[in-house]
Specification:
Length: about 700
């Protein structure tokens, strides 16, 4: 066993946190820089732009690194957003705490002052919260006139996520979409059903040229209400790259099979888009593709809500399917469940065309060895063979034949399995024209169960006539131009049933390394809107909240510390003396985290050439906030003008008052708390004890002198 003292002035655990967090500084702000993660064993690469994927890819052998991973995973599981902020603040505050240690600040004083300081800031920023109702009113009352400024999309190339600047310009230039829906509520009674809704949020991109003046027209346009002159000097760029182009004309057929569809088309008036569509864009932080898909989902669910009174946004009714090999312009939202199957299964689906299918739901694995959770084998009994093969066939043949006989006897055509499926059973079912698909998310099983009346079973032996449902339909998924897609090894198919609320966001890309990236960005946008509606309020974005925290800490620092109040402020009276002595220094360390955060975001957005100049700009606004007398009022006025931290601060900065950026309340504050809790937890550790075979490695390593071997 080896022992190492870590609670020195150069605290090793905090240094490890700071080093790990430095890799994610490029993920801050809307202008994110992507990273390639390369697997040396397979030479395959993945494109990432989130802290979650970064931490998953790092070799976290240290105890501090594992704690960091757990903290980020918890934030991701609960909010799906705020992980990049958490990661950066962990690094910033770790470095600040190390500086405090080097100045001989006691650990107890650091823990007390930073904890109390953060709690005070979280209470102070509550005055900035804006209710969703007020946000909707302001967003819908704001008018964005596309012809008042020149679209810069052609200057920056295609709307590729590999080109975030072009992405943001397109978000600025394209007006909000108008949803033209073909509702069947009028002729289907109370069953507010929308037949095949193939929603292509990118169909309007082909009309972007109407906002762009021809090349050679160098006239200038003045934005009403401002002194900004937008030049129309347009340069042609390559927009038909086989790999990175996402701009493309979407040609939709009016009828695909026997299903209707409703399409997104560009609208001249942004207020024709739903209020939630505006809110989704304000929370997207520049994620153009994700927000367009999300607006399609919002439009669909809002129309259903008018008929059935359901929730405006139900994330349990949304799943994703990633298709590799198609341009990103084919991304859309399709009603029902879209998934990938083998070419052999696709042939079975062609046989099912226009037929009503009997469906079975299996809540578990469809394998011979599967046993449900909680299954207990008899004690003191050793099982040699559960099902003796008296007929002398191959092992498992009896089970396969019995399962297939059950499905055939109940005339089941479609089986959705939550877990894994036995390969041999899958092949036999396919040969018998029984479609078995797995694994399938639980929410998908629930959605089909509610509409078809099918009851999930754990084992096929439990199947009875009341467990099977009817009315499902299966077909090959068709692209926007009406072609059924054959992507080689896997074929996309769509399973639907009348009245099902399930929607599938079909994410397409021609770049294999972008598949996970697009899926992560979509879910982040979806959960941001979900949590905003759940909280009922949002924060003004663009650095407004962090700026108020800095202003509040400045006030706390300048307040004189009195011994009489120290006992009230800090629960332990014996801490009052060291806390009073080091309070100002520790609060400045806490403030340095947010100041570095704002500086890095500004540098990532090219709002400042260096962190030094960015810090100077932050200090300038802090001084003006103090001179104003009411820092919160000053910051809200900056946000209202779209001028937080000078010259705009967000993906919609050039729109002035047209579009603003908002942040989630709970996700942001919890990211702060978790970051500081992790830093203080590591700070209070005083030793690292290593056991196991690694001891021998440490004996021969260059750092063996740092350890005490027991």
């Amino acid at each position: 066993m080896a022992f190492r003292d870590v609670n020195a002035r150069r605290h090793i655990g905090l240094q490890q946190l700071s080093s790990l967090a430095s890799a994610g500084r490029a993920f801050l702000g809307p202008m994110k820089s992507h990273k390639f993660i390369v697997d040396e064993s397979t030479n395959q690469s993945t494109l990432i732009c989130s802290a979650v994927r970064l931490i998953e890819s790092l070799d976290l052998t240290s105890a501090a690194g594992q704690l960091l991973n757990e903290t980020i995973q918890v934030q991701n599981k609960e909010f799906k957003t705020g992980m990049s902020t958490l990661l950066f603040l962990v690094g910033a505050w770790s470095s600040a705490v190390v500086e405090c240690l080097q100045q001989n600040v006691p650990v107890s004083a650091i823990v007390s002052v930073m904890s109390e300081g953060l709690n005070s800031c979280c209470e102070r920023v509550q005055c900035l919260q804006i209710s969703i109702h007020d946000v909707k009113k302001e967003l819908c009352s704001s008018r964005v006139r596309p012809n008042a400024f020149e679209c810069k999309a052609c200057q920056v190339g295609c709307d590729s996520l590999l080109n975030p600047r072009g992405l943001l310009y397109f978000q600025k230039c394209i007006s909000e979409p108008e949803v033209i829906s073909i509702s069947c509520c009028s002729h289907q009674g109370d069953d507010c059903h929308f037949n095949k809704g193939l929603v292509s949020p990118l169909v309007g991109f082909g009309s972007a040229a109407s906002l762009v003046k021809p090349e050679g027209d160098r006239s200038s346009s003045v934005i009403p209400g401002s002194d900004v002159i937008a030049s129309s000097c347009i340069k042609q760029k390559l927009t038909h790259s086989r790999h990175f182009s996402t701009l493309g004309k979407s040609h939709f057929s009016g009828q695909q099979g026997n299903f209707q569809e409703y399409l997104l088309k560009p609208s001249a008036d942004p207020c024709e888009c739903s209020d939630l569509g505006h809110l989704a864009m304000a929370l997207s932080h520049g994620n153009q593709t994700g927000v367009k898909l999300l607006q399609s989902i919002v439009e669909y669910q809002q129309e259903r809500a008018e008929c059935r009174g359901s929730s405006q946004l139900n994330i349990t009714e949304v799943v994703t399917c990633s298709l590799l090999g198609l341009p990103e312009s084919y991304s859309c939202v399709s009603q029902g469940f879209v998934t990938l199957v083998s070419p052999e299964q696709a042939k079975v689906i062609k046989h099912f065309k226009d037929k009503s299918l009997w469906i079975l739901l299996v809540d578990g694995d469809l394998t011979e060895q599967y046993r449900h959770l909680g299954f207990n084998r008899p004690h003191n009994v050793r099982t040699i063979l559960e099902h003796p093969n008296l007929e002398g066939g191959r092992a498992g043949d009896t089970w396969l034949s019995r399962m297939l006989d059950i499905l055939v006897s109940f005339e089941v055509n479609l089986v959705l399995v939550k877990g894994s499926v036995c390969k041999n059973l899958l092949d036999r079912c396919t040969a018998s024209r029984i479609l078995v698909i797995g694994p399938v998310p639980r929410d998908v099983l629930c959605a089909f169960g509610e509409v078809t009346g099918a009851q999930p079973v754990t084992y096929l032996s439990q199947l009875n006539p009341s467990c099977a449902g009817n009315g499902a339909q299966a077909e090959l998924w068709e692209a926007s131009d009406g072609r059924a897609m054959d992507l080689g090894e896997l074929v996309p198919v769509r399973i639907d049933v009348r009245g099902i609320p399930l929607l599938t966001a079909v994410l397409t890309t021609a770049v294999a390394s972008k598949v996970q990236l697009l899926e992560d960005q979509f879910w982040t946008s979806l959960y941001r809107l979900h949590h905003a509606l759940k909280d009922g309020k949002v924060f003004p974005g663009g650095g407004a909240v962090e700026l108020l925290c800095l202003s509040h800490i400045q006030v706390l620092t300048e307040q004189p510390v009195r011994p009489a109040k120290a006992g009230k402020e800090f629960p332990s009276p014996w801490l009052a003396t060291p806390v009073a002595e080091y309070k100002s220094l520790v609060l400045q360390a806490l403030a340095s985290g947010w100041k570095r955060y704002l500086s890095v975001v500004m540098c990532n957005m090219a709002k400042a050439p260096s962190e030094l100049e960015a810090r100077a700009l932050v200090d300038h606004h802090l001084k003006k906030a103090v001179d104003c007398g009411s820092p919160s009022a000053y910051i809200l006025e900056l946000f209202r003008r779209g001028d937080v931290l000078g010259g705009g601060f967000g993906p919609f900065a050039d729109h002035g008052e047209g579009l603003k950026v908002y942040d989630n309340v709970a996700a942001k504050t919890e990211a702060w708390r978790r970051a500081l809790d992790l830093v203080l937890l590591v700070l209070q550790t005083d030793a690292e004890i290593i056991t196991g075979p690694k001891r021998n490695e440490l004996l021969n390593s260059p750092v063996s002198s740092e350890f005490m071997f027991l």
